[in-house]
Design brief:
D-amino Acid Aminotransferase, Chain A, domain 1, seven-stranded antiparallel β-sheet, nine-stranded mixed β-sheet, 16 strands, alpha+beta
């Protein structure tokens, strides 16, 4: 498959308050964010003309910026509106949405008090994260080389660009070895998450998931927990040791990009995607598109 470079596409990007032709939406090579990782972002998806959990994503973007000690120079309402308008401007109704805020090039040192905050929103078509064959059998995870840092050592509650460096290293290593992704542990050696998604396990119909003490409490994670409980499932947020994996029958990961995806393998451990997982796949798919049906049933 030929990849189209992200800097050479048609379309429009919302940049600092106005639409800019895609190829002209640039930043300077001496931007603080490029050298020191001072950027925060969101990953959102539009389904049938509506961005799922848009306001929650926007709130988290602003909270992430606050945790990295900078302010976004627009209101939350304006950023949410701009996300939707960028999809419309590009003629898309089902797509991925990427708002990002970063420190500019006014100052280049560890100190960044004189930098200006830049904001951009880009959108593009987004197919299924994993192909149908891998989805049905469950994706394969290896063990990540690096562990998630503790909250005392990094702003782990922020969706910060710099925190993803160890994720890129781990995912690249996994893909080179023939896996789809990697499972990361926390600093104490307990299960944390994959490089870009939260993880759940199933034992005797009960769901188990790690407490998000050093990684994002994902919006999709929160949504799936709510869906499972509404369906009468018990969900336990707890510490999960790697040697416990042999006691679980099903496993799945959740995230904006992954949605709800079955896992068939983690290192030496095997899982059989089953009813609990696929029920949540269906429930989540119906939820993110529920607004379309509701609109159709509402009298004009």
């Amino acid at each position: 498959m030929t990849l189209v470079p992200f800097d050479d596409r048609e379309g429009w990007i919302w940049l600092d308050g106005r639409f800019t032709p895609w190829r002209e939406a640039n930043l300077h090579v001496l931007s603080h964010a490029l050298h020191y990782g001072s950027a925060v972002f969101e990953g959102e998806r539009m389904y049938d003309g509506r961005i799922f959990a848009l306001e929650a994503h926007t709130r988290r973007l602003f909270r992430s910026a606050e945790l990295l000690d900078f302010e976004i120079p627009f209101s939350e309402d304006l950023i949410s509106q701009a996300c939707t308008e960028t999809c419309i401007k590009n003629g898309l109704t089902n797509c991925y949405v990427r708002p990002i805020a970063w420190r500019g090039a006014e100052q280049l040192s560890v100190s960044a008090l004189s930098t200006r905050t830049r904001v951009a929103i880009a959108v593009w078509e987004w197919p299924k994260y994993f192909d149908a064959t891998r989805f049905q059998r469950g994706v394969r995870l290896s063990w990540a080389q690096y562990r998630r840092p503790p909250a005392e050592a990094a702003p782990t509650a922020a969706k910060a660009a710099g925190l993803y460096m160890i994720c890129t290293i781990s995912k690249n290593a996994a893909e080179r070895a023939g896996y789809d992704d990697a499972l990361m542990l926390d600093t104490s050696g307990a299960v944390a998450e994959t490089t870009g998604a939260n993880i759940f396990f199933v034992r005797d119909g009960t769901l188990y998931t790690p407490k998000p003490h050093c990684f994002l409490d994902g919006i999709t994670r929160q949504t799936v927990i709510k869906l499972a409980r509404e369906a009468g499932k018990r969900v336990i947020e707890t510490r999960i040791e790697p040697d416990e994996l042999a006691t679980f029958s099903e496993c799945f990961i959740v995230g904006t990009a992954a949605e709800v995806t079955p896992v068939g393998e983690i290192g030496e451990h095997r899982f059989q995607p089953g009813a609990v997982t696929f029920d949540l796949v269906d429930h989540y798919a119906k939820l993110v598109r529920a607004h379309t049906r509701e609109r159709a049933l509402t009298p004009a």
